[in-house]
Amino acid sequence: MTPIMRKIAAIVTAVMLSTYGGQAFAAYTLSQLETIEQLIASGEWALLYAYLAENPELLEQSDPLSQELKAFYDHVVETGTISNVEPPEVIPDIAVIEAEIDSY
């Protein structure tokens, strides 16, 4: 997985955890976060690009997730390709992360 996709996956996971914990980020719905996570986990980069094109408000926030999604989107626009984006090695399982957090 490329560094930008690792960052996006990590940020999506963190935002989802905070959403599950009752501290929802106003800029994102849980459905949007789940869609982004699923597209990254399945390596559907063209579909992620299309999803972002259909939901430009996701690129207009000042938080880390929006910044990384915008970097991905801008890269595709600038290069015209997503061929150098590799599929993810492993996307963290939210349940495992929550269990680890609860164990502290």
Descriptive tags:
104 residues, globular
Number of helices: 5
How many strands, what sense, and barrel or not for the largest sheet? none
Strand content: under 5%
Write down the overall mean pLDDT: 74
Helices and strands, in order, run as HHHHH
Helix % is 55-70%
Task: Specify the overall morphology.
Answer: globular
Unreliably modeled segments: 20-24
- Rounded to the nearest angstrom, the distance between the terminal CA atoms is 29 Å
How many β strands by DSSP?
0
Radius of gyration based on Cα positions: 14 Å
Structure overview:
- The protein is mostly helical.
- It has five helices and no strands.
- Residues 20-24 have low confidence and may be disordered.
- 18% of the residues are buried.
- α1 runs antiparallel to α2 and α1 packs antiparallel against α4.
- It has helices at 3-20, 30-41, 45-54, 64-79, 94-102.
SSE arrangement:
Layout: H1 3-20, H2 30-41, H3 45-54, H4 64-79, H5 94-102
Helix pairs in contact: 1-2, 1-4
What's a quick, concise take on this entry?
With 104 residues, this protein is mostly helical. It is 62% helix and 0% strand.
